[in-house]
């Protein structure tokens, strides 16, 4: 019997082992690529280092794979390096480094990747400050505060009378949800006493930048069972870009606690999802301002005993069209004329600011140029230096954007102006004379030379320089003497200047006493006369020594002593 059982076992085991090995062979293990270090969004400080980490391994076999970093819509900039361990290192974060980055790995047909974003750290001013309040002793109190946008998320703390305040319950969390980068903070005080009176400030802190922003001061007054109604602060005029968030404030004190209602253009605001009321109605928040929200707003407080109304405040949604009403066009004007380059900016609330640019540089204020209230550019007296390319730019500071007009060319025509040098020339026969004629004007003037009304022809000993601006006369002869005129002309006008050229003749002595006999002690006159171009200069020398006569009271020349 035992033998039989043993035999049966021997028959069953091989079958089971066969089935087990078969199941293993037909069910191979499945491998996949996974992140051992999941890349995360990076927040850095400009001009400081930043590191993004990323690591990938294959689960079968468990082998680390090399990763590759890429920048969305571009290449990795200079100063951005991938390390041997797969991390991406920014040696000095720049503005152009901000944006999306992809960390990926591949093994055969398998691939894995993750997209992260690099943002710069910043902290904006407090969005909503705590409001001053008057409460009755023993009541509960809530101070609310909302930070400005912050990256990374701001931390909120509280000050009382300029000192850190830790009493009560402090709650904070994300404000608004979604992509909001604001932090909401609430300070809750129970069983308020006179000791809680004081000045409270909300402090928002960015741990990465190690900077803080303080809210406006809120004053807490703790009183008795009844307090008169008072509007401590009403809404203020505000201009804000459309499609953005804003708020109107109405700070009310009084007991019993008043009910607060808001009005627009003397009509009570209806309930709608486009705005919310916070802090018992003291804060009217527009989640997304639209053009139809423009108007006068005021708050009204009522506690059955009294009713008060704040001063109205104007909400102006900032908008600007994308098309110019009138754009500049090419202009051609004469020097000295007045001309206007037209630029009527797009319709804008508030009105757009217009700036003018010349040759891609902001046009600075000049005495002969002024920008008109309409946006036009007026040249009172155009100068040649005003020639160039112009365009105007319209901007609305509340929208943080600008629109540029077409680029046009201002052509300035100027009549010729001629300057000749030298004004007069006296030269000798055989010499060379160079006469310069400097000409300005636009278009470039043509230059012609004439002598006594007849055109000067080149060739031989007369040549002209570039653009005929220089006249060369070599090997002067007596017939070259005369008046030479440089005349310049262009379609706008003409100008000319004249120079005189004189040929000096070599002096000839026509009277001189060759030898004279005279007694010792007698007076003698030695005549000397010459002809030639005036003025003539005479000089005397002793013929034997060929030296000038020395100064002596006994010797005179034309009545002058030597």
TrEMBL record:
PROSITE patterns: IG_LIKE
Entries under Gene3D superfamilies matching the protein: Immunoglobulins (2.60.40.10)
Domain of life (superkingdom): Eukaryota
Main location: membrane
Keyword Glycosyltransferase: no
Keyword terms, alphabetized: Cell membrane, Disulfide bond, Glycoprotein, Immunoglobulin domain, Membrane, Repeat
Record-level Gene Ontology MF annotations: cell-cell adhesion mediator activity
CC terms in the record's Gene Ontology section: axon; plasma membrane
Protein localization: Cell membrane
Keyword Thylakoid annotated: no
One Pfam short name: I-set
Gene Ontology BP term (one): homophilic cell adhesion via plasma membrane adhesion molecules
PANTHER family the record matches: BASIGIN RELATED, CELL ADHESION MOLECULE DSCAM2-RELATED
Protein name: Roundabout homolog 1
């Amino acid at each position: 019997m035992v033998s039989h059982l043993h035999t049966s076992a021997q028959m069953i085991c091989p079958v089971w082992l066969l089935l087990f090995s078969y199941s293993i062979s037909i069910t191979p293990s499945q491998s996949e690529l996974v992140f051992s270090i999941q890349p995360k969004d990076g927040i850095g400080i400009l001009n400081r280092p930043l590191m993004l980490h990323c690591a990938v391994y294959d689960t079968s076999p468990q082998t680390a794979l090399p990763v590759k970093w890429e920048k969305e819509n571009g290449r990795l900039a200079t100063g951005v390096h991938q390390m041997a361990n797969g991390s991406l290192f920014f040696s000095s974060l720049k503005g152009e480094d901000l944006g999306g980055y992809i960390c990926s790995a591949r093994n055969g047909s398998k691939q894995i990747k993750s997209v992260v974003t690099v943002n710069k750290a910043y902290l904006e001013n407090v969005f909503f400050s705590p409001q001053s309040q008057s409460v009755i002793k023993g009541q509960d109190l809530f101070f609310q505060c909302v930070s400005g946008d912050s990256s990374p998320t701001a931390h909120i703390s509280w000050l009382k009378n300029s000192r850190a305040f830790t009493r009560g319950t402090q709650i904070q969390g994300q404000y608004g949800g979604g992509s909001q980068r604001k932090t909401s903070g609430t300070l809750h005080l129970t069983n308020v006493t006179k000791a809680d009176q004081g000045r409270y400030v909300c402090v928002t802190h960015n741990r990465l930048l190690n900077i803080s922003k303080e809210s406006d001061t809120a004053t807490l007054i703790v009183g008795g069972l009844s307090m008169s109604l008072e509007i401590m602060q009403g809404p203020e005029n505000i201009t804000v870009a459309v499609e953005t968030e804003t708020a109107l404030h109405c700070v009310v004190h009084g007991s019993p606690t008043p009910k607060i209602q808001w009005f627009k253009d003397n009509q009570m605001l209806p309930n709608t999802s486009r705005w919310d009321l916070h802090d018992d109605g003291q804060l009217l928040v527009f989640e997304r301002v639209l053009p139809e929200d423009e108007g006068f707003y005021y708050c009204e407080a009522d506690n059955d005993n009294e009713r008060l109304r704040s001063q109205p405040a104007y909400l102006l949604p900032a908008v600007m069209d994308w098309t110019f009403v009138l754009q500049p066009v090419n202009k051609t004007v004469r020097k000295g004329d007045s001309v206007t380059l037209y630029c009527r900016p797009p319709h804008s609330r508030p009105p757009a600011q217009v700036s003018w640019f010349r040759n891609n540089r902001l046009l600075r204020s000049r005495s002969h140029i002024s920008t008109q209230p309409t946006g036009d550019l007026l040249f009172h007296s155009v100068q040649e230096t005003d020639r160039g390319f112009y365009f105007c730019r319209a901007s609305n500071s509340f929208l943080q954007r600008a629109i540029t007009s077409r680029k046009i060319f201002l052509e300035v025509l100027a009549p010729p102006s001629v300057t000749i040098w030298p004004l007069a020339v006296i030269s000798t026969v055989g010499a060379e004379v160079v006469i310069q004629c400097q000409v300005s004007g636009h278009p470039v003037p043509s230059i012609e030379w004439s002598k006594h009304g007849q055109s000067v022809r080149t060739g031989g000993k007369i040549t002209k320089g570039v653009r005929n601006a220089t006249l060369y006369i070599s090997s002067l002869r007596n017939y070259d003497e005369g008046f030479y005129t440089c005349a310049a002309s262009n379609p706008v006008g003409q100008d000319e200047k004249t120079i005189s050229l004189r040929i000096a003749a070599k002096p000839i002595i026509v009277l001189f006493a060759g030898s004279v006999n005279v007694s010792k002690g007698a007076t003698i006159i030695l005549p000397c006369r010459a002809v030639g171009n005036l003025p003539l200069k005479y000089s005397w020398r002793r013929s034997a020594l060929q030296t000038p006569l020395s100064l002596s009271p006994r010797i005179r020349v034309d009545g002058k002593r030597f």
